[in-house]
C-alpha cells in the first residue's frame, strides 16, 4: 500500500520527474554512458507499463481504425522523410543534422509515446495502437528512405533491429494484457495513478542513457550544441504543432494529443543498434538533444494539448 501511494504521488509530479531525468543525464555524462547498454531492457519496461495502463480492449480499438492507423504510419514514416529528402537535396543541405532529421521522421513512434500522452491528460490508446502499427510497418516504410540515402548504411541491419523491437513490443504487450485480463480487469483510480507514477519514473531513467553526448558538448562545443538543440526543437515541436492543429481543425480533438505526440516523437534511438558507428557517431549529439523537447512535451505543449482533449 505504501508503494502504491508513493507511485501515485510520483504520478502527480510526473512532469517534474521527467525534467529531473534530463538534468541527471546532462550533469552526469559518465553515468549516462554506463546506462546506455540497458536502454533495450528499459524500453521493454516502458512498453509493458504503457500496455498495462491501457489494457487490451482500448489498445485494440475498433477494427475500422486499422486502416486509418496504417495510413497515418505510411504518411509519417515514409511520405514525410521522403519529402524531407527532396527538400534538403534541392536546398543543398547535407551533413549530420539533415541526416538526423530524415532518420527521425523515418522512425516509428517512441515506446514512451503513450506515457507522454498520459502526462498531457489525454487518452493513450491511439498512441499505443500507432506505436504497434508503426513499428510493424517499419521494415516496409524504411526501405525507400534508405534506398534513396545509401550513406545511411545497410537496410538489412535496420530491418533486423525493427524486427527485434516488434518482438519486444509483442512480448511486453502480451505480458501486460495477460495481467490486466486475469488480475486487473477493472483497476481502481488509485491503481491507475500508481501505474502512471511508475511510467514517469521509468521514462526518467531511460532518458539518462540517451544523454551521454549532451553534457560534454555543452561545455566543449556550446555553439554546436545550441544548433543541434534548435534543430531538435524545430523538428519535434514543428511536427507536433502542425499535426495537432490540423486534427483540431478537422474536428478530431480527441486525436490531437496522441497523434501530435507520435508525429514529433520518434524512436530514432532504434538506429543506434542498427547502423554502423561511422553513421551514428555524428548523430549522437542530435539524438541527445532530441530527448529534451521530447521530455518537455507535457510541459511546453500543454497549451496545445489541453485544448485537444476530448470534450
From TrEMBL:
Gene3D superfamilies: 1.20.1530.20
UniProt entry tagged with the keyword Membrane: yes
Keywords noted in UniProt: Membrane, Transmembrane, Transmembrane helix
Domain of life, per lineage: Bacteria
TM annotation in the entry: 16-32, 38-54, 66-91, 97-119, 131-149, 161-183, 195-219, 225-247
Protein name: Na+-dependent transporter
